[in-house]
Here is the input.
Amino acid sequence: MSDGELVGIVLVSHSAQVAASVAELARGLAGGGVEVPVAPAGGTEGGELGTSSALIAAAAASVDRGAGVAVLTDLGSAVLTVKALLAEGDELPAGTRLVDAPFVEGAVAAVVTASTGADLAAVEAAAAEAYTYRKV
Here is the structure.
């Protein structure tokens, strides 16, 4: 399987460090098989807390392999920023989808599922299913 068949994953956080760490965690837990294109998009261009349309768009372009891009976000304004980009219609690759999922667990589920060659709908479903994970 080539990476051309894989769904790309973008992790949008208000913190560059959080986005990068969750990307590293998800990649690590996906195992040593096929490497899914994952890009963090955290913080602002100036390194502050917040979100950046430009960073999100660049991250999405960097992971687009033609199978779709799943975007997971941490908090409210990250969701609004991604929704605004999707509404503009030309800032994100075709087949980009905002996924309603918990940030950490959803990212792991999305990357693990994408590593199997699953399509965007299956990646989205796996990430969303992470809402049901119980800890106690």
User: Anything to note?
Assistant: The chain is about 45% helix and 15% strand.
